[in-house]
Amino acid sequence: GSKIILRDYGAPGGERASVLVYAGSYRFSSSVLVVGNSIRFGLEPQIQVGGEAGTWYESIKMRVAAEVTGDYKKFCYGPLPNVPDGFSAKSFAALTIWWLLSQGRAAARKNLPDQELTFGMTIGIPMSFYTNSGLRATFLDVARAAWYLSRLNGDLEGSSIALDRALTLVAQAFDEVRKRDVSPDSVRDWIRSEAEAAMYSAYRSPSVAPGTYAKVDVGAGTTNASVFRITDTFEGGHWVKSGMAFYGADSGSTGMDAIDSALWKLDPTGKPDCLELRGLEATILADGKAVRACQAPIDEIVAIGRRPWKQLKDTLGGLIAADPDWKKCIVYLFGGGGDLLPLHRRIPVYPPDDSIRLRLGVLDIPSDLDFDFSGAVPLEILRFIQVAYGLSEPGLEVPHVDTPAQMPPWSPPRKKPFKDYDEF
Questions:
Q1: Which of 317, 323, 303 is nearest to 212 (CA)?
Q2: What's the rounded Cα separation, in Å, for the pair 325 and 143?
Q3: pLDDT more than 70, % of the chain
Q4: Residue 251 is inside which H or E element, if any?
Q5: Cβ contacts of 125 within 8 Å, gap of 6 or more
Q6: What is the per-residue pLDDT for 248?
Q7: Contact, 296 vs 214, CB < 8 A?
Q8: Are 330 and 299 in contact (CB under 8 A)?
Q9: Which helix (H) or strand (E) holds 175?
Q10: Side-chain half-sphere CA neighbours of 376 within 13 A
């Protein structure tokens, strides 16, 4: 599912960010249902709509990646029904983001009445997508097409649209995208790496001190990992956080979907498809037989979590073993993997010496974040909204460095003013 965080730059007392809620949940279902002559958004799979049978399309982001690369086995789990004539996973993604953008606008207008509002948006993609020129260009097109759908047609009324109208409008939006180039400097205004965005909450968390950190975020279709350092300076008679940089970051196309697929193959009788197991993994994996069935995806998630450490070692060589800071590195396990004991056992270790266990960290709620514009953010959802929170800060750009001496001054919030996207 998708998460939306709306950041208000003109809030009294300073900027505020709010986790938006839809149908009582912080998760906006990203599944698309085609039923009759309509496309419906925001519903959870397997919900019957008016008694009429429909076709569900799930994990749209991963299906876009498969569509671009031709590698469906790598990116997709669960059913892969054919899309309607004229459509593609890319067009479904643009339409879904249009619906999400419409929901965000509606929430802003409801909670900030009588104010003149200007909107922008940024979407996150796995770092492996961002560093792949073909996938980066595709998701940039998707983000911009979603914006043009909103710009040309206003907000999507309700949560459905006629199939034929959707086909016409999304084609017009992609035509607009093709007419206008995007400068390299503007790409990050539209799309950013999820690995980078997820680091920001550690910087803003009151309980996180300067030091070395590792982050492994196990999402539905991908796992993002990074190793980074937060620094401090002495100001006004006390030490304050002053900078952040990453030493390695990577992602891979193995996540909770792959674990669900392995569990479903172990016992397929109870659920119609593997994605129906979402949220049940921690309970099922209490059984040793289930853990053994998931050995391959668990091994791959652990391997992805170690890739940034390899980048760090390649940079520092033997110095990593001599640097005591990395032996005290705190590990954060985000996303669905945060509940899985097999990952708790295997991820928080110091790769140069597996006998050294690292501490799993727990974040506090950032002081500028609330839930549905007024309530306290439930601590149990914090690990699922790290990326959305980082994406809500448009000026966030965590630099990559090779040594602490190279770390440039970095003082959030953003370095550049918020811009109306119509300027692009």
A1: 323
A2: 39
A3: 91
A4: strand 238-252
A5: 61, 135, 136, 139, 191, 192, 193, 194
A6: 87
A7: no
A8: no
A9: helix 163-179
A10: 5
Spatial distance between the Cα atoms of 142 and 43, rounded to a whole number of angstroms: 21
For 346-357, what is each residue's pLDDT tens digit? 999 998 888 999
Token pair in block for residue 37: 């002559």
Placement of tokens 């979590």 in the chain? 305
Report cis status (omega within 30 of 0) of the bond before 413.
Answer: yes
Q: Phi and psi dihedrals of 369, rounded to 5? A: -115, 135
Higher pLDDT, 87 or 320: 87
Q: Do 45 and 31 contact (CB within 8 A), yes or no?
A: yes
Q: Average of pLDDT values for 280-288?
A: 89
d(CA 35, CA 239): 58
For the stretch 190-203, pLDDT in tens is 999 888 888 888 88
Q: Could you report how far apart the first and last alpha carbons of the chain are, in Å?
A: 28
User: What is each CA distance from 183 to 139, 143, 173, 393, 412, in whole angstroms?
Assistant: 15, 15, 19, 20, 24
Q: Is 38 exposed, middle or buried (0-12, 13-18, 19+ CB in 10 A)?
A: middle
| Mean pLDDT rounded to a whole number for the chain | 86
Interior/surface letters 227-259, b for 16+ CB within 10 angstroms, e for the rest: bbbbeeeeeeeeeebbbbbbbbbbbbbbbbbbb
Q: DSSP string spanning 108-169? A: HHHHSTTS-------EEE-HHHHTSHHHHHHHHHHHHHHHHHHHHH-SPPTTEEEHHHHHHH
d(CA 219, CA 224): 8
Q: What pLDDT, on the 0 to 100 scale, is given for residue 47?
A: 54
Let me know: does 421 contact 397? Beta carbons within 8 Å: no
Q: Using the 8-state DSSP alphabet, how is residue 270 labeled?
A: S
- Helix (H) and strand (E) counts in the chain: 17, 16
